[in-house]
Sequence to fold (78 residues):
Amino acid sequence: LSLTDIAVLPEFRRNGIATTVIQRLQEEAARTGRDVELSVERMNENAFQLYRDLGFEVTGESQVHLSMRWSPTTKKRT
Fold:
């Protein structure tokens, strides 16, 4: 599965909205035995930390982006 874009309006951030959406995606991925992949801008430290906290690992990098993956077979389910 690929997480293409997720954005939360500033006034609604830090309320667990993105975490909940991503955890639901992880649940679906685990149910179907699939990985979740995404890319995040290097400068977006808050998003990067969120993904790390949810068990994503860096799998590649460019000057601007980091590729990340979460796998139900290697990571605890959230």
